[in-house]
Design goal:
single chain; 477 residues; alpha/beta; 2-enoyl-CoA Hydratase, Chain A, domain 1; 2 domains; 8-stranded mixed β-sheet; globular; Carboxyl transferase; transferase
């Protein structure tokens, strides 16, 4: 979609239910008159603001109009956006920002700078109170790049969307022809806050889908809708989806609905939303492969935690906890990424994810679908850091490390037959899921095909989970 005069309104029309948009501040124009600004027409001061419905859900929207001074942000432009945020927080409804902006308005200088600060402050104040969603359809550079980063979810139009702090040509040793660091593809894979890229129509559809899964605010106790799927539905051959957790999550969800977040970033860690018995559940899962639409393996990964993956999981868990969305984790992990780059960042990222799992007070269920080795497993929502229930697929393994490796370490220098014997013994005594179950670290061993019914039942039981010490007046004698 080109940046015509009507683009900003067309995006709103494509996003909201038909004829539901009500504009606020339509008559606002720029107040500043410096540098011949008074000679320019500034309808709505370059941003259309208001509210409307998405599948009957109230949302607040602002859409920047690049036909008015290139959509630049000035005093009144920023005040309109801040006002929309204030109203959304009062009413308890999501805010959706549609960005197409050349940055600060030079003619307004310090007023424009102050305006940026007002937008940042409004976003920070709304964080954890109402969901914030951003989509970039044109330029989003410099300080404006913080706006989608402060949002909970962000999208970039794949042809015209440009996200950057510094333009590609301003980076030493780089040029746009060498590496277009502002492109949707580059940013989606590297910056860690973009949920998806696509055409304008695809992005607007994705936002609508997301709004219909999320609660309107943090006081709604999550999101529930009617379930028309069989809660006891058997998911045949689910064990074949062990490598790509995206497939597992799709199969167990009501009507096979799985909305992946940050899909092109840290693809060895999967985050997104599913439905179980009509209730929105946040899902976090390890993945060792990605399969394409033809069932072919497109990518492979080690079964290891990475810094990017841990940070991605931590942010997602924190969002779910803030909005009372229960968390399901699927664990298939054997250790940590072993690279020089990982050593610089991994410990802090591991700590962040561990703290997010341990600190979340929403219902938490973990299902071990493969191997669960060492402290990497402990961090992935284990019983010891607060999971309410832990299930494991038949044939999965829980332990310190691979039994063969453990035997080689303990009996270094011994003959091969001794090591083989000790491997078998270690596997039976220390690495079997049955051992973990006998110690209460696994609550139930289940058949993979029955995962849906057990997961649904677990969250149904945890529906009334409370936090902290129970309130009481009676004390037993």
């Amino acid at each position: 979609m080109s940046n015509s005069t009507n683009s900003a309104r067309q995006r709103i029309s494509g996003l909201l239910d038909q004829q539901s948009f009500m504009e606020i501040g339509a008559l606002v124009t720029a107040r500043n008159t410096d540098f011949d600004l008074s000679q320019s027409e500034t309808p709505s001061d370059g941003v259309i603001t208001g509210y409307g419905l998405i599948d009957g859900n109230l949302v607040y929207v602002y859409s920047q109009d690049a036909s008015v001074l290139n959509g630049t942000i000035g005093e009144m432009h920023s005040k309109k956006i801040a006002a929309i945020y204030e109203m959304a927080v009062k009413m308890g409804a999501p805010v959706i920002g549609l960005i197409d902006c050349a940055g600060m308005r030079l003619q307004e200088s310090v007023d424009a700078l102050n305006g940026f600060g007002e937008i940042y402050a409004a976003q920070a104040k709304a964080s954890g109170v109402v969901p914030q969603i951003c989509a970039v359809f044109g330029s989003c550079g410099g300080g404006l790049a913080v706006v989608p980063a402060l949002s909970d979810f962000a999208f970039v139009e794949k042809e015209h969307g440009r996200v950057f702090v510094n333009s590609p040509n301003a980076i030493k040793g780089n040029h746009v022809s060498k590496c277009d660091t502002a492109s949707a593809e580059y940013q989606g894979s590297n910056n860690g806050y973009i949920d998806g890229t696509g055409t304008t129509e695809e992005i607007l559809a994705a936002i609508r889908e997301l709004v219909c899964l999320l609660p309107g605010n943090n006081a709604e106790c999550g999101r529930e809708d009617e379930c028309t799927d069989d809660l006891n539905r058997v998911c045949e051959n689910l064990s074949g989806c062990r490598e790509d957790a995206r497939l597992t999550l799709t199969h167990i969800s009501d009507s096979n609905v799985f909305i992946e977040t940050k899909k092109n970033y840290a693809r060895n860690m999967v985050t997104g939303f599913i439905k179980l018995n009509g209730r929105t559940i946040g899902a976090v899962a390890n993945a060792s492969a990605v399969y394409d639409e033809n069932g072919e393996k497109a990518e492979s990964f080690d079964k290891a935690l990475t810094a990017r993956g841990c940070n991605k999981a931590a942010e997602f868990i924190s969002f779910c906890d803030a909005f009372d969305i229960p968390v399901l984790s699927l664990t298939n992990v054997e250790g940590f990424a072993a690279t020089e780059c990982s050593e610089k960042n991994l410990a802090k990222a591991m700590a962040r994810m561990t703290a997010a799992f341990a600190g979340a007070t929403v219902p938490k269920v973990n299902i071990i679908i493969g191997n669960a080795y060492g402290s990497a497993y402990v961090m992935m929502n284990s019983k010891s850091i607060g999971a309410d229930l832990v299930y494991a697929w038949e044939g999965s393994k829980v332990g310190m490390m691979d039994a063969g490796l453990a035997a080689k370490i303990m009996y270094d220098g011994k003959p091969a037959d001794v090591i083989a014997e000790k491997k078998k013994a270690y596997e039976e005594l220390q690495s079997s899921v049955e051992t973990a179950a006998r110690r209460g670290q696994v609550d139930l061993i289940i058949a993979p095909d029955d995962t849906r019914k057990y997961a649904a039942a677990a969250f149904e039981m945890l529906y009334t989970k409370g936090t902290g010490e129970p309130v009481r007046k009676h004390v037993a004698k």
